[in-house]
Amino acid sequence: MTDDVLTRFLTLSPADRRKLLSGDSGQDDSRAGRIPAIDRGKLPARLPASPGQQAQWTLWRIAPDSVTYHVPACYEISGPLQPSLLTQAVNAVVARHEVMRTTYAQEGTKVVQVIHRHLPADIRIGTAGSRDEAVGLAAAAAREPFDLGKGPLVRVRLWRFAPQRHLLLILLHHITVDERSSRILERELAAYYGAAVTERPAILPTLPVQYADYAVWQRSLDSSADLVYWSQQLAGATGVRLPPDRPWPAVSTLPGTTVQLPLPGVREALAHLSARLGGTPFTALAAAFAVFLAGETGRDDVSFGCPVASRTDREVADLIGYFMNSVVLRVRTPPSATFAQLAAETREVVGGALRHQAAPFHEVVTAVGAKPDGFHNPLFGTMLVFLSGEQTGHHAALAPDLPMRPVILPMPNAHQYVTFTVVEEPEAATLVVHYPSDAYTTETVERWADRLDNVITRIAADSSVLVADLARSPETLEQAPR
Fold first, then answer.
1. What dotted CATH number matches 44-214?
2. What ranges make up the beta strands (E) of 343-400?
3. CA 346 to CA 357: how far, in whole Å?
4. Cα dihedral sign, 308-314-317-323
5. pLDDT value at position 390?
6. CATH topology of domain 224-479
7. How would DSSP label each residue in 157-183?
8. Neighbours of 202 (CB within 10 A)
9. Domain layout of the chain by residue ranges
10. 44-214 and 224-479 share one fold
């Protein structure tokens, strides 16, 4: 073993060292071929929805006009776009993925998928006088409610606002897609559009299963071992809600606001911490976030939510659908612990959560003994999302001469919790906070960003700093040497 290879080996986490020494490449062959495909010639008229879809249906029934779970993908397209070929490409993707031509129905206490053989997307093409007008039209279109019992549930709006300039909106409901599905959709749209331009068949891998196959298979899984883990891990835990500036509204649908704030130096700090302490940039961020919550709430036992993709089987890697689940990270933050010790505990907490992520969140709530209450989440009051450079570094394009620049649309509703999303970008990191605007002020959110940035900067400089020092009041913290 050369010195260079030895150095790289020693920087691996203990788990990764064991994998390497055991010859484990990281590809879990036991995860291949586990999901059986239903014979499409004998496909029942209705199939059970997945647990995640059932939860989405329930939330929609509570507030059918809410846009909280709308997933708008909006792009500015430059170049010689041919709308007729775009229409052809969209419907090709819809034909390829059953979940995009599926509606839903209630049968007793169960929700079922109604898969349609032919259900073209709702596509409308128009013009706008300017880019600003087009963005306004897109924002209004993104707020139009869905009826999950009727189709189509794929909406496409295209506005031409200048020569060779278009704004494209693809609107779906979360019951149909998750975050990774959006990237699959971008990729396949480009493949089908390119095929239409060249009048050749699109070259895409065959899908071994459809989302309905996954939903039926998931319903057959025994999650009892996972639920035992969660009932033990979360025993006595309560959801941590950041102290509001105004009384929390007692309603199911809240007006929401999104604020984007820079986090200078955080990208490099997280990379430095993960290299020095082991783990990943996310586990370092999660530990820092736990310290932030402890400081804001005055508690030394904090819990917060994190989304997980739950695409642990190869068959679903290229499948559009709702695979996302939520896990709860419970981190104890004793004042006498150093950040390095806290980071080690957080790595164990994250690892346990990932090993037991298959248990549907609503079943975890029941197993813990918490009381579900519509939109209110009884297990966490904050959500932490981390989008690494690998997830955000892709550049969407329909064709080489048709770049697609993402456009963020303002969405007026918020969850009953605050979502912190740290986005890694090539030069730096950005914090995106989506919060109920009736409960918090913009000034408070900006203070949160400064506090989190301060915590991460301090621990990157000295990971032996005590949690007690990190979790001091913001005024004292700002005066501390950095």
1. 3.30.559.10
2. 382-387, 397-399
3. 16
4. negative
5. 55
6. Chloramphenicol Acetyltransferase (3.30.559)
7. EEEEEETTEEEEEEEEETTT--HHHHH
8. 17
9. 44-214, 224-479
10. yes
